[in-house]
Amino acid sequence: MDEKLEKNITLKDENDKLMIDHSYDGIKELDNRPPPWLMWLFYITVMWSALYFGYYHWFWQEEVAPQDSEYLAELKAADIKVADLKASNPEKYNFDETKIALLNTPADLDAGKALYAAKGCLACHGALGEGNAVGPNLTDEAWLNGSTANDVFKVIKHGNTAKGMMAYKDQMSNEEIVKLTSWILVSLKGSNPPNAKAPQGN
Amino acid sequence: MEHQTFYYDNKIVKLFAYATIFWGIVGMLVGLIAALQLAFPIFNFNLSYITFGRIRPIHTNAIIFAFVGNAIFTGAYYSIQRLLKARMFNDFLSAFNFWGWQLIIVAAAVSFAMGYTTGKEYAELEWPIDLMVALVWVSFGANMIGTIIKRRVQHIYVAIWFYLASFVAVAILHIVNSIEIPVHFMKSYIVYAGVQDAVVQWWYGHNAVAFFLTTPYLGLMYYFLPKAANRPVYSYRLSIVHFWALIFIYMWAGPHHLLYQALPDWAQSLGVTFSVMLIAPSWGGMVNGLLTLRGAWDKVRDSAVLKFMVVAVTGYGMSTFEGPLLSLKNVNALSHFTDWTIAHVHIGGLAWNGFLAFGMLYWLIPRLFRTTLHSEKQANLHFWLGTLGILFYAVPLYWAAFTQTLMWKEFTAEGILAYPNFMETVTQLIPMYITRVLGGTLYMTGAVLMVYNLVKTIKSGSIEENEKAEAPALEKTQNLRLAGETIHRWLERKPVQFILWITIAVVVGGAIEIIPMMMIKSNVPTISSVKPYTPLELEGRDIYVREGCYTCHSQVVRPFRSETERYGEYSKAGEFVYDHPYQWGSRRMGPDLARSGVVTGKMYKTNTWHYNHMLNPRKMVNNSMMPAYPWLISDDLNTNYTAKKIRVMQTLGVPYPEGYDQKAVAELKAQAEKIAAALKADGIDVSADKEIIAMIAYIQRLGADISSATIVKKEEVVINFTPLTDAESIAAGEAIYVKNCVACHGAVGSIDTKGLVGPSLFDDQYIHGSTPNELYKSTSEGVPEKGMQAWKHLLAQKDVEQVVSFLISSKK
Are the Cβ atoms of B609 and A34 closer than 8 angstroms? Predict the structure, then answer.
């Protein structure tokens, strides 16, 4: 088969090289060799696939499957990073949740108010803290989970999920929760908004 | 040699061409509505028939099966007759193919709008329509094979190879992925469950792209491109190599849609490797197409037809490079569930499928009507509008994809999610979604211009419905190979053997992936705490499927820190064994819901929250783009088929007790009453027989089984607690009680707990047992489903011991 030795057919001599008896509704065919780069691309991807499958399935030595081990490694790396950070600044990160001191500078209270909107508190507790079908009124004197700074801090941070209160510990830093707690107890509580929900708790 | 006279059937080609144009415009219009709904939720109009969850399958099915499907038939019916020098085998089959297909499209659109869907992407059609599809598709295949049998050309051309492969593969895919047991005329359950369903579905879904959007189109390219350019095909050998490699390898690549999901590692790796091996075979088609234009590039400057084809083939090359890229697990970890996938399919859809169809129509219509194109200038304008449209569509979506995935994965230095509120990661995308609407509008404007141009062209000419042609009769040749004849050349004149080899090539990959998933138990490890849905939850699940919730919400958590932190425990294969169909989804326009029923989890919301959210999502979540579902609140739940549904599930192997179907409705009502009562306690007056109750029940069940599994596991921890008796500990315990417990259980010594959340701890009755070990356990581990927290997370062990000791001491 001499066309095996043939390189690409040039435009000039292609009329002589059209494949005899390959004519379909006037469409002719040339017998160019497939571009070598394309064939090599194919061989390389096949070899890569064999290596990939071999590495993860035939030669995998660890006890944990590849995907799970990747997940565990990710968790471990993150834990180490966070632990290092906390160790580097114990004053900031050794936070005592039983000694929450309310803040009352306008800047802190405004920050707390902004958090109330940003974290979606108003969806359940109303735009003015008046409460709605989902969440209780935050402006009256009755509290379901306690009314001290510690109590409010705690229910925001750890939630009471069965009752519908989310835990915000993954969404706000301790400092932010203190600001929010402060705004609720200093500014919101006792504000008498319209349409307030009846008191719940004690 | 005897010359035979015969007549090409041009009428059927004309009909399919008209249908292509019509459904193309309809499909794009529906797509535009869907895009608008994502930018501005008001376009859902609070109307069940056109909410996004129902519009999206109408759009995808209209584009794939109506627009592209009719384009395939147009080109195939035109080229098959000419390549084989024969009229179509049977005029009745042709007409049946045409009218049957149009009927299917109308039935599909109407049934999707009404909420009849199987909930499997691109296979949403309910069983009667599935049967029609099978029948019409087989009639197309029979018509094609009949024409091949009575052909007047010795060898079948590469375009026909691709048509044959498409016919065989789509028939197999469609039938295997649609084995359903009917509940009633428009409702069925797929026989596969959970992971198995996922594997079958994406074997189908991926290969619907392969054998419906790709191989038939390669057939069209191999006919219309050399015709339009008037050039010989560059390489016959390349055709052979890339044809067989493509159809063989394609069938293995489906699992790349399920990477990092609850699928065994080996199946995922097959999906990755076979996708990577697809690059070269796919590019074979692009290379053969583009090199066929050698020496004709000057014509591209003037010819709109060739411009469309060049961009189509280039778009094909781009998306078949992008596909394998997205199949690498590290890329997929970023891209999956984002708009990257949407952008990817639209490069394929708008460029390859759309532009090749347009190029074909601009070439075909003037020939069919024996005239010239009304305006080459307008066709060129269409080309530029379309190209700009593609750019304005795709670029913002790539941007949106990167934005959202990076926000999902971002952690603060302190190790908490930087954007824990899912909504934040969606509001960022709105400007991109608005730009996408602009892109789609540009693309569609071009298409409308084409309609005008083609109508003018058609009016200026006339069609010869039965076009006279002549060809010599087919010579009989010997069965065995002739001297010097290559095997493939021999196969090309042996169509039956050819089809046989195609079938073998396409069956292998699916069989190797699917059969072990069904047969080998270790692929789906069972979880004993996973139980069948209650009748109410099952009805709720059917509503979830009906509303197309899966188009925006996934139900599978991947093993990434960013997902387990956001949603909870990652998903396991054994969790889905009763899910007919599986509902993992493929895009997160909203958050994943796999853990929404885990009471102590991050995704949990109360019944009341869900009620308000369904009624008006924007009341509960600022800027939410979710449609409102007021009809769930006003419509009664239909329980006429509940018993039948239970029986069908039993047939499918779901272990409901014998005779449970007779009790199902009563149990459904009892569970519904409880939920309605809980809502009532929050001041929401809703009757227990409304659909919303079932929907809430279903959402509250998601993930609940596996979370109770972890609790069961903890029970196995033996608690051996001896109460402390020293006064100091008792006093400390009392202080802890006052600080932490009074809110729910009342003051120290109080027996009256009216208005409080929890029971009294100072009377003689203990709900969860009164021995020291039982008290310790209910305090430490909590009873989350009743509202009691697991205090071990909040108190030191010593504190728990002290408070329990205090309670025990106070009982005396």
Answer: no
- Whether B710 and B725 map to the same domain: the answer is no
Angle between helices B495-519 and B265-276 (to 10 degrees): 150
| Closest Cα in chain B to A28 | B232
Determine the 3-state secondary structure of A24 from DSSP: strand
Task: Judge: A49–B79 Cβ closer than 8 Å, yes or no.
Answer: no
Facing residues of B8 across strands?
B467
Category of B683 on φ-ψ map: left (φ > 0), alpha (ψ -120 to 50) or beta: left
**Collapsing DSSP states into helix, strand and coil, what is residue B322?**
helix
Domain membership flag for residue B579: no
Looking at the structure, tell me whether residues B749 and B704 fall in a common domain. Answer: no
By the 8 A CB rule, do B452 and B378 touch? yes
Look-up of token digits 């000039």: A12
Residue A40 exposed, middle or buried by CB count within 10 Å (0-12, 13-18, 19+): exposed
The vertex-B596 CA angle with A120 and A70, nearest 5°, equals 100
| pLDDT over 90 percentage in chain B | 78
Give CA separation, B240 vs B223, B243, B651, B658, in Å.
15, 5, 46, 57
Classify residue B306: in a domain, yes or no.
Answer: yes
Instruction: For B329-374, write each residue's pLDDT tens digit.
Output: 999 999 999 999 999 999 999 999 999 999 999 999 999 999 999 9
In this structure, are B381 and B401 located in the same domain?
yes
- Cβ atoms of B642 and B665 within 8 Å: the answer is yes
Is A134 within 8 Å of chain B by CB?
yes
Closest CA to B283 of A4, A37, A46: A37
Residue whose C-alpha is closest to residue B604's, from B462, B702, B695, B723: B702
- Based on the fold, state whether residues B510 and B542 are members of the same structural domain: no
Supply the range of the domain harboring residue B757.
Answer: 720-810
Q: B549: domain CATH number?
A: 1.10.760.10
Looking at B647, B682, B714, the residue that finishes a domain is B714
Closest Cα to residue B545, out of B515, B595, B580?
B580
Q: Are residues B725 and B787 in the same domain?
A: yes
Q: Does A54 lie at the interface with B, CB-CB under 8 angstroms?
A: no
Looking at the structure, tell me whether residues B386 and B300 fall in a common domain.
yes
Last residue of a domain, one of B714, B735, B770: B714
Do residues B766 and B794 both lie within one domain?
yes
Handedness of CA B752, A157, A139, B613 (dihedral sign): negative
Query: What is the spatial distance between Cα B627 and Cα B38, in angstroms, rounded to a whole number?
Result: 9
Do the domain assignments include residue B491?
no
Residues B137, B167: contact at Cβ < 8 Å?
yes
Task: Count how many domains chain B has.
Answer: 3
Best interface-test mutation with A: which of B744, B750, B783, B799 has the largest number of A CBs within 10 A?
A: B744
**Residue B761 forms part of a structural domain:** yes
Helix (H, G, I), strand (E, B) or coil at B306: helix
3-class SS of residue B293: coil
Q: How far is CA B459 from the centre of its chain?
A: 41
Q: pLDDT tens, B175-188?
A: 999 999 999 999 99
What values do phi and psi take at B6, rounded to 5? Answer: -150, 175
Shared domain check, B111 and B237: yes
Instruction: State the amino acid at position B76 in one-letter form.
Output: A
DSSP classification of residue B474: P
A83: nearest CA partner in chain B: B414
Average pLDDT across chain A, whole number = 85
Mean pLDDT of B610-616: 94
Which of B388, B419, B342, B325 is CA-nearest to residue B586?
A: B342
Q: What's the whole-model pTM score?
A: 0.84
Pick left, alpha or beta for residue B795 (phi over 0 → left; psi -120 to 50 → alpha; otherwise beta): beta
With beta carbons under 8 A apart, name residues in chain A contacting B147.
none
The domains found in chain A, sorted by start residue, are 106-188 (1.10.760.10)
For residue B806, which of B773, B763, B760, B762 has the smallest C-alpha distance? B762
Q: DSSP label at B467?
A: E
